[in-house]
Design brief:
The complex is a heterodimer.
Chain A: H1 14-21, H2 26-52, H3 72-84, H4 92-110, H5 117-125, H6 127-137, H7 153-179, H8 184-198, H9 202-216, H10 225-251, H11 254-262, H12 267-297, H13 309-317, H14 327-357, H15 359-362
Chain B: H1 2-17, H2 24-31, E1 34-38, E2 47-48, E3 54-55, H3 57-70, E4 76-80, H4 86-91, E5 97-98, H5 106-111, E6 114-116, E7 121-123, E8 125-130, E9 145-149, H6 154-165, E10 170-174, H7 177-185, E11 191-195, H8 196-202, E12 212-214, E13 222-224, E14 227-229, H9 233-251, H10 259-262, H11 268-273, H12 280-283, H13 290-297, H14 301-308
Parallel strand pairs in B: 1-4, 1-5, 9-10, 9-11
Antiparallel strand pairs in B: 2-3, 6-14, 7-13, 8-11, 8-12
Helix pairs in contact in B: 3-9, 3-13
Classes of the chains: A mainly alpha, B alpha/beta.
């Protein structure tokens, strides 16, 4: 028989927390100190540049001349263009309405307590794009036409990203299923599609859509440049999405397919009720990763002459009205903040979704 | 890199293949507006302001073409296009005229299916250095380090000049105008070099613009002008004579303010310009008062120059070579007769 021993000491309190979490051994202690040094080295100068030394008021370049920090009045003066591009000033309410409905719809889908998610989701995928298109481009109900060359700024970035993201997922699923199909023609077509689009850089695709395609089309067949870009972005991303989906499909144990077949489910039934729901869950991080990178890739449309968020900021930096040393940097930082806000929310939401979907496994 | 070569090759092949449409003027009339390919932001030449209006010399030229055709300078759609894409986009028919700060070179004129219709700005590459360096001539740049922008002729010109004068300076290239000028400002280079018009604008982005000077040497010829697709003579003629009309108007002292009085002028040259004599407008399939419309709605060349890049603007570019031939420059237009 062994002697009784005292129970292990229960550690508590902030000092103990710091010891356990930050100074747990030599390596971690060095790492912690290095991180503290990095923060001390980087944050105060950044804050000084962004806030203390920055110019806050003014209407032209003299406001920022000789100022050693950020030039915020420039962002203020350009804000309309950064958000809407060259969208006619009197018609910007239409973009606002589209933004507002988009935000409400998304919030509805994201906030767990709200009911009728399926119904709202269906509306967002069918009615909303239609209404958004009619509102933004005009031509119906007495709305003046705003040609797509005038769309720009954050509006254009969101349009491109939304179309790319929403169209690429279903296309990607179909392509992935096609690639795993037992019908040789379908399989070869899907493989060819995926590999061709994945084998070409996005810049080339955009160039081809904007410059080469009109040369090959017969006279009078020309269609809108933005539409050409949107279609090519959707196809391009669908090819990538297809590979993510295929990975998810392959990760699923074969027993699931066999089980579905044993129950007498046909191909589509098995896919929709058994395979895809499970596969999509494992794919979620990959899909969101794709969406985040797609959101940032939208900035490539600047090279074919669209002024998206990045494009308006770059064009603004060349404006002589505001020519001063820190204008360009201020613009880029502002753009980075906007991109970050969107991408970070996407990844947070996906983390939340994963947690929810993993509930079943935790039991 | 290979892929890029292939893509560029394909684009070039496509560019040479076909002109998109035979009769540009008919298309423009049918559309009801002119489509004008401009840069994505070049101070003084084509730049969107905070309200989204395009301003600059290249832009005003397109407005003048629209004024001649439609009597309305606002019937233009500006199509911003990148440096890399501009020639292919013109060939593909994405716009009717390219007014994009483009240097007229032999290869572009002969080899790339473009037709340059004239020169609306004589530019040339120059150097900027710090006043404190004591350098007053480009020939003193021996062994110096220069910053410039990639993808333009600047880098090649600088190398040529160095070789010709045995200067052996080092050139560092950057992707964007904002980058090379920031590097120069940070002391990375002893000097900066690009087109003089570009230097004048970029100089404003320095911390203390007054501490820097432009050296007197101009080391290259950069005649900038609009271009159209080859193979449509009628359209090329129209675009060419819009530019010539603007220059002739300045020479004859006809401007947007006095053009109405000038309609009663007895000078035969003015009368021909304003369509009182001869059928020059009709020959272009325009109205007799085509030049009146340009001058009234947009202005003569001098007015456009002053508004876009002249001494009243932040660029403060003196007329220099761009002055009229009889005022010490080389801006010269054939007569209307």
């Amino acid at each position: 028989m062994t002697a009784f021993r005292a129970p292990p000491k229960h550690h508590e309190g902030p000092v103990e927390w710091v010891r356990v979490h930050l100074f747990d051994g030599v390596f971690n202690s060095i790492l912690t100190l290095a991180m503290i040094a990095l923060v001390v080295w980087a944050v105060p100068p950044a804050a000084k540049w962004l806030f203390i030394d920055a110019a806050w008021h003014g209407a032209a370049r003299d406001a920022c001349e000789g100022v050693s920090g950020a030039c915020w009045p420039y962002i203020g003066a350009r804000l309309g263009q950064i958000v809407y591009g060259f969208y006619d000033a009197g018609e910007r309410w239409r973009a606002d309405v589209v933004f507002a409905f988009g935000a409400i719809g998304l919030a509805w889908l994201v906030i767990p307590r709200l009911p009728r998610k399926g119904w709202v989701g269906g509306m967002m995928l069918t009615l909303y794009p239609l209404v958004a298109f009619v509102l933004l481009s005009g031509g119906w109900f007495g709305l003046p036409i705003v040609s797509t060359e005038r769309w720009g700024g954050l509006l254009l970035t969101l349009v491109v990203a939304a179309v790319g993201i929403v169209a690429s997922l279903p296309l990607g699923v179909i392509l992935a299923l096609g690639r795993r199909s037992e019908l040789p023609v379908v399989r070869v077509l899907c493989v060819a599609f995926i590999e061709v689009w994945r084998g070409v850089p996005m810049i080339t695709v955009l160039f081809a859509a904007s410059s080469l395609l009109p040369l090959f089309l017969p006279d009078g067949w020309e269609f809108d440049k933005l539409l050409r870009a949107l279609i090519s972005i959707a196809f391009f991303n669908a090819a990538y999405m297809a590979e993510v989906v295929r990975a998810g499909l392959q990760a699923l144990p074969k027993g699931q397919y066999e089980g579905a077949a044993a129950l007498g489910l046909g191909y589509w039934q098995a896919m929709i009720f058994i395979v895809l729901p499970q596969a999509l869950r494992t794919m979620l991080p990959g899909i969101v990763n794709n969406m985040v990178s797609m959101f940032k890739d939208t900035s490539l449309v600047t090279i074919i002459g669209f002024f998206d968020l990045m494009g308006t900021i770059q064009a603004g930096a060349t404006d002589l009205e505001w020519a001063s040393p820190n204008v360009a940097v201020t613009g880029y930082i502002f753009a980075a903040l906007i991109y970050w806000a969107f991408c970070f929310s996407m990844s947070r939401y996906s983390a939340h979704l994963e947690e929810q979907l993993a509930e079943g496994e935790r039991r | 890199m290979k892929l890029r070569t292939l893509v560029l090759g394909l684009l070039a092949a496509a560019a040479m293949a076909v002109p998109a449409s035979a009769n540009t003027l008919d298309n423009v009339r049918k559309n009801g507006f002119l489509r004008c390919g401009v840069s994505e932001g070049q101070p003084g030449f084509s730049n969107p302001d905070a309200k989204g209006n395009w301003t600059g010399l290249d832009v005003d030229y397109c407005r003048a073409v629209a004024a001649a055709i439609f009597n309305d300078p606002n019937k233009v759609r500006f199509v911003p296009v990148s440096f890399a894409e501009r020639f292919t986009a013109l060939q593909a028919g994405q716009f009717d005229i390219l007014s994009h700060n483009t240097t007229w070179t032999m290869d572009r004129d002969v080899g790339q299916g473009l037709e340059f219709i004239g020169v609306d700005f004589y530019d040339g590459q120059g150097f900027m250095v710090r006043k404190s360096s004591g350098i007053t001539s480009a020939l003193q740049l021996k062994g110096a380090t220069l910053c410039t922008q990639t993808g333009t002729t600047s880098e090649l010109n600088a190398a040529d000049y160095s070789r010709a004068h045995n200067l052996g300076y080092k050139v560092i290239v950057y992707q964007k105008a904002s980058e090379y000028i920031a590097a120069y400002d940070a002391g990375r280079c002893d000097g900066a070099t690009t087109d003089r018009s570009g230097l004048a604008g970029d100089r404003l982005k320095l911390k203390n613009p007054a501490d820097h000077i432009l050296l007197p040497e101009t080391i290259s010829k950069e005649p900038l002008g609009p271009a159209v697709r080859q193979g449509d003579q009628q359209w090329g003629d129209l675009c060419r004579w819009v530019l010539f009309a603007m220059v002739n108007a300045e020479e004859l002292n006809v401007n947007s303010k006095n053009v109405d009085q000038m309609m009663n002028s007895t000078s035969p040259e003015v009368r021909r310009l304003l369509g009182k004599e001869g059928g020059f407008g009709q020959e272009l399939t325009l109205t007799a008062d085509w030049a009146y419309r340009i001058i009234k709605r947009v202005g003569n060349y001098g007015e456009v120059y002053e508004r876009a890049v002249g001494t009243g603007t932040p660029l403060k570019l003196p007329r220099g070579l761009n002055n009229l031939w009889n005022k010490g420059g080389i801006m010269y237009a054939p007569p209307i007769r």
